Amino acid sequence: MKCPYPDCQKDYNQNWQDFFRGWLWNQDDYPSDNERHLLKRVNLHTRRCHFCSRLFHDIYIGNENPKIFDDATKRFIQAAPDLELIASYPASKTSFKAKKVPENIRKYFHEAERCRSIGAMTGVAACLRKTVYAICDDLGVGGIDYKEKISNLPLKEEVYKELLKQIKFLGDNGTKPGGDIYTSDQIDIALKVLPVVIDKLYEQDEQIDEAQRALAHARSKGLQL
Ligand SMILES: [Zn+2]
């Protein structure tokens, strides 16, 4: 894993000691063995990046020692741990390499990441689709609908266009009742690859700007290229 702060992103070494890992509870009021398995409590996992020294947190809810009542033996038996990730901080993990990525595109994408950090999958699907639409609008690509606009984006690699169409499909289906169920794996792949596509689109834009500036400079010096 990497440090989740967008301006750091250095490799986190899993062997570094946790800053804090445990159940949040007032020490004077710690639950007894008898009730510990009945209570859902907050579990906090805090790590510190050794590069930027900042803390980042995963917040879980679950039972410390889950047990279920077995009707046959009339006894509690041990159950599998049931820690559920509720939120991560910081939630926005991506920093874009290309400086020209517009603010609204960054904002929609970071909102998708925040939705993901609390498991709001419909929200992720909607925000990712909105990000793709905003890219098409910003770059002013033509087309009768967004499917055609995506096809007309200046990307050489068909695989990236396919991914953007897939994200549109997830957004279309995820936001209507009874829409196709998508897996969190699909969503996570989209979250990982979309910033690569965004950087690619805007970096090449920056390179064209740079080439045009160089050309204008050369002409102003009376040079023929
Ligand atoms: Zn860091």
Can you describe this structure?
With 225 residues, the protein is an alpha+beta fold. The protein folds into 2 domains: 90 residues, no CATH class; 133 residues, Up-down Bundle (Four Helix Bundle (Hemerythrin (Met), subunit A)). The chain is 44% helix and 15% strand. It is built from 6 helices and 6 strands; from the N terminus they run βαβββββααααα. The strands form 2 sheets. A 4-stranded antiparallel β-sheet has the order 1-2-3-6, with no helix packed on it. A hairpin with a 6-residue loop joins strand 2 and strand 3. It is elongated and about 90 Å long. The protein starts with 19 loop residues before the first strand and ends in a 5-residue tail after the last helix. The model has no long low-confidence stretch (mean pLDDT 86). The chain binds zinc ion. Zinc ion binds next to loops.
What's the structural domain tally? 2
Q: At CATH's second level, what is the architecture of the largest domain?
A: Up-down Bundle
CATH class label of the largest domain: Mainly Alpha
N-to-C CA distance: 48 Å
Strand content: 15-25%
Helix coverage percent: 40-55%
The structure class reads alpha+beta
Q: Low-confidence spans: pLDDT under 50, at least 5 residues? A: none
Summarize the structure.
This protein is an alpha+beta fold. The protein contains six helices and six strands.
Topology overview:
Blueprint lengths: L19 E4 L9 H4 L4 E8 L6 E8 L4 E4 L4 E4 L5 E6 L13 H15 L3 H19 L6 H6 L6 H17 L9 H37 L5
Antiparallel strand pairs: 1-2, 2-3, 3-6, 4-5
Helix pairs in contact: 2-3, 3-5, 3-6, 5-6
The protein binds zinc ion.
The site of zinc ion has 8 residues, from loops.
